[in-house]
Each structure stands twice: as C-alpha cells, then as structure tokens.
Write the structure tokens for this entry.
Amino acid sequence: MMKRIELFALACIAALVASAQRASFDIIPLPKEVKTESAQLFTLTAGMGISYDEDNAECRRIAEFLKEWVGEATGMELQLTPGAKTSSIRLAIIAPVKKGKKASQPETATMIEQEKESYTLAINKKGILLSAYEPVGLFRAAETLRKSLPVVKESNGVELPFVTITDQPRFSYRGVLLDCGRHFFSVEFIKQFLDVMALHGCNQFHWHLTEDQGWRFEVKALPDLAKKGSIREKTVVGPSNMRIYDNIPYGGYYTQEECREVVRYAAERYINVVPEIDMPGHMQSALHVFPNLGCTGGPYPVAPHWGVMREVLCGGNPQTLEFLKTVFGELCDVFPSPYIHIGGDECPKERWKDCPKCQAKIKELNLTADNSIKVEGGDNRGSQDGRSAENKLQTYINHEIEQFLASRGRSLIGWDEILAGGLTEDAIVMSWRGTKGGVAAARQNHRVIMSPNVYAYIDHPQLKDYSKQPRTTDSYQVSCSKMYSFEPVVPEELTEEQQDCILGVQANLWTEQVAYPEHAFYQLLPRLASMSEVQWCKPEQKDFESFKARLPKLEKLYDKLGVVYCKQVE
C-alpha cells in the first residue's frame, strides 16, 4: 500500500512539474522593448490553434514553422486553423499607421529595411498575437516566441506572462560568412547552418564559393572549371610554412541546381544568399584550368596549402574580363541576391609589374601611381604600394564588373582592399582589416559592412587555453566577450549622414583549419549569439553579464537542434 502511495505522489509531482513550465522573454538577441505584466498569465496548451490568412502562402509557412518550433521545444502539438478568428495564436499582417494619414497598405518601396522586419508580439487573456507589416516581421516574431518557451522533453502547458514586445533590428545587413573554398561542406550541412543563422536573427548568408584551393560553383559554359578546378591533389597538414601534405586528393563543388536549392531554403527563412567569386586574386584554382588567364602561362596547380598566392588573373589580358563576365553572368542567373561579392582582397601585384600585357594595359588606360594618397585599411596584405598604377588597374577591372553587375540590377561588394586603387562609383566596402577601411569608405559616402578580423573572425580561437578547443587559426583570440564589445558605429569618426552608410555587421568563418561540420558549429557557437546582439541591439541595450545569464536558455535550443557548441564563455 505504501509503495502505491509513493508512486502516486511521484506521479503527481511529475505532473505538477510538467504543468508548471513558464516562458521567459529574456532571449537573445534582446528585443527592443519588452513590457510585461508578470502577475497575469496565458497558458498555452496542446491542441490550440494557429490562425493566419489562408490566402497568404508566406503566412502559412510561418505558421507551420511555429507549430514545428513549439513541438520541438515543449512536445506540445498545436493545430493550424487558417482563417479562424478565435484561435489562441494569431498571425496578422497589418498596415502601418502614418501620422496625419489613415492606415494604408505597406509601401515597401519606401519602407526602410529595418521597418520591414519590425513586429509586435502581444500576449493577453485572448491569447497570443503576432503582428507585422510584412511576413518577414511575422517570422521574426515567431522566432521570438520560440525562444521564449521553456525547452523541455514534454509539457502539459506553458504559462506565458502577459507582454507587449515591439521590436526591429538595428542594422539591415546581419551576415555570416561560410568559406566553402578551402573545405567543402554539404548542402545538408548548409541548410542546418542557415537554420542556426535564422535562430539568431541573421539575414545575409555570405557564401564564399571560390579559392586558390578549390572552385566550388558550376559554370555551365565552362564545365571543366568546377570539374577540374574543384580538386586539389593534396592538402597541407599543420602550418602552411612546414609544407607537410597528406597526399590525398580533395574536392567537391555545387551544381547550379544545388545552389538554387540553398537559395530557396534560405529565402523561406528570410535569409539572402550573397555569393562570392573572389577575383582577381585567390584564383589559382581557375588558373589551373585556364592557364592562359595568368601572367606567366603556368602551369598552376590547385593550391594545396593556405596563404596569399602570387599567381593571379592577368589584368591586361582581354580574355580575363570575358571569363569574369561569363562567370558572374551565370552567378546572377542562379542567385537573385541584390549583392554580389567580388572579393578583391589579397591580390599581390608582382606578376602585374613584370607582365607585358598588364603594363601595356596600364599605359593604354594612362594609369599612373599616386603614392601621395594614403590607402586606408589595416595591415595592407596583398595591396601594398599605396595608389599604384597596378592597384588602379585592379580598380579598372572592378569597375568593368561593377558595370556588368549593375546591368543585371546588382550591387558590388568587395573587401576593403578595393580602396587601394580608388573606389568604383557604387561599390559597397566590407571592412575586414580593422574598421579604418570602412570609416574611409563611409566618409566617401559609400555603403559599408563592418567585419573586422579582431572582432568578427570566428576561425580564431575563442578560449585562451588552446588545449581546451580544436586546433584552428592561432594568431589571436576572438572571445565571446571581445565580439560582444564591438561597436560598429563610432560617432566621433563619422557624421550622422556618414553613419547611415553603415549597413551592418558580419561574422566570418574561414575554414583553412575547419574541415568538418562539428568543428564549424563549435567555432560558430555561441559566438554567433554575441554577434547577434551587436547586429540587432542598440549599444545602450547591451550588457555582457546579462547576455551570459540569458545564454543557457539558448544553449538548450542548440542541444535540441543537435549542434556542437563551445560550452565555456570567456
């Protein structure tokens, strides 16, 4: 008899624990404004409905995501109730109210990007209302609700305090780069990577597709480019300067159909895919297939080690621009992104200085050195000599590609080395060698994405003790706290108008030392959580101690997603 009583008591306790789960809005990234009435609660239980406009396919998809996420976190299954007016959870597209005017349909052409993503999440006795001007805002609201829920094996209900959350991101561009040139990652992994990006409110996936060590994008007009340029005969083991190789062929590339699938999957999560074809440097894999495009004629192996290669596309060969326009033409066909990244970094000019074709082109264009102009930037790797004639030749190539991309309705992004020969008219600068290049570009009223290596490079170690983490680039530490401390807009450096040129911030995962999905996620997490608050929150909202207190809840979702992450935060 006593045994039965004990078992009954344990069952009651378990039931009480299961029913006593409570939501918390202390999430990452922190919303702009949260007003709670913690004394009043709405209880979300299994079987409740999610209503939405049944004629809106995007709203239906978001409702399906929310149903999946609630089940994932709590074990409770909700129902989709399209068109219902009395559902416990409602998704609503609303018209913005303009001062002095009646509400009208959203004017997306004039609405700034951050407003497009704004939303309100309201919980009261009637239930849960997610409202926004556009579906992307509803998606952000659904992610906020997802992250507010307790993560448990099962629940009989979740108590949600009455709340009104109004939110929108600080920056319109919130990016993450994945380098698939050094090491190839499957489409399945990239989809998981995109899911994690969406969880953190990121909206730009910078896909680094080509490198000296491998060409990963299929160009149908040049079939050998990916078939042959994607394979290196061996890979360096350990530091590149030791030149110890594994002697194992390594390769892989993405078909255009696979790229379109990544674009589709990303778009469903309101992430734009920014493809990068790095040129005119970092092109040895292309030169391996087309040696006539180099200054010396080759032969050029697909590079088996890391570093800056002196073999680059010939700036004076007219076939170079023909090749690039063929490649970028097909890239535009596959990727609808408004931004196309051309790289432009680490392009040594020693071959150009000795190349008759390059020098003839410099003479034809009447390009002369102007070393009196200081080139803003960081360590100037690959772009020495100030505004040299050779650097101006690179600007000429950039301009030709910029005009080509503009004819396709696209904007050019380049690493901050594109400042060296003078910026092209509408170029967007991605500042990686510190922030000086970005500041210099903003002063010229060019759009800027801040991605400084000392704050945003997640290929570097995140812990001081190297023995407690996988081997990676070991030149300096980029800890969670270091990344969190980054402020991309410094008023003392820029006027208010120039500050508006800062589109946003990006974290970069280079993969010289990262060959496996588990290692990639370890490098990414939880540092992406730090970066997400830099990207999303105003400076006055940020507090690292508060961030650390909120992180364990997000890490429970990492566990649910089955991704590896660093469990120590410094």
